[in-house]
Amino acid sequence: MERNQTRRQIAGMRQSLFDQGLVDEQFVQLEELQDDANPNFVEEVATLYYRDSSRLIQNLDQALEKSPLDFNKLDNYMHQLKGSSSSIGAKKVKAECTHFKEYCRTANREGCMRSFQQLKKEYALLKKKLEAYFQMARQAGPSNATCRPK
Amino acid sequence: MAPQQQFHVLAVDDSIIDRKLIERLLKTSSYQVTVVDSGSKALEFLGLNEDEQMDQDVSSVLPSDHEQDLEVNLIITDYWMPGMTGYELLRKIKQSKSLKDIPVVIMSSENVPSRINRCLKEGAEEFFLKPVQMSDVNKLKPHLLRGRAMEDEPIINKIEATLEVI
Fold this sequence. Notes:
The structure holds two protein chains of two kinds. Chain A is mainly α. Chain A has helices spanning about 1-20, 25-30, 40-65, 70-90, 90-105, 110-140. Chain A is elongated and about 60 Å long. Chain B is built from six helices and five strands, in the order E-H-E-H-E-H-E-H-E-H-H. Classes of the chains: A mainly alpha, B alpha/beta. The interface of A and B includes residues 29, 32, 84 and 88 of A.
């Protein structure tokens, strides 16, 4: 009985990722690449994403402290972050990357600053939700990813 | 008939996430996969130094530090990479006698028609928009099969010539 409850909880957490616009169709594409031989594929991709993103966010933080701003460099970092966000299906983060890039294009310092703060918020929220989701999924055991008759 | 060897795809991307993704997609399609993070590493793997072109007539290249014959049947590369772009890598491959017949596919996160046209003109077989999906990888099969058919061509021609005489 408890197992079913956990499963429902996991399904609910997963659904809310979509309902809240945190992830998009690409996330489903990643899920479909999971199988018995690669049961943790999505979580593995997410782990790489956190690592890569925190590196890029740190670079952006540092670059945004400079004066004058090197908009080319900023755009470059954001291009990378946008790319990886897109690959994992991080919908809101990707959208904020696009905003930031637009501010770079128009050399809008204030816009960049504001956008970056928002991006960091979105990223933190996504990371928190994903980590909770994967932890729950792992607790339910490996059969959560694929339906395996007992 | 002897069982066909697995197709071997060389993937090139500077993004660690995209490397993991393309590797998984290709392995799901039962391809043998080698993944590198730059154009220069790709050329190194292919046995081609950046500044020189090989004059060998062989269609398969034997990388020096591999024990077995690791023929590459297709190269899939990201467009924008620091150092050497995917376009520059494509050009070097097409300019190389030994590598020019290997089909090359370009991936890019940006939908820029002039960029796409330039790559196709330079000899790229396909241009995939990122994030690359299974439906894109499914498009690789015809290019791989065609490459294998071309390898078998001399034999087929011989058979045909023989049949004509009969």
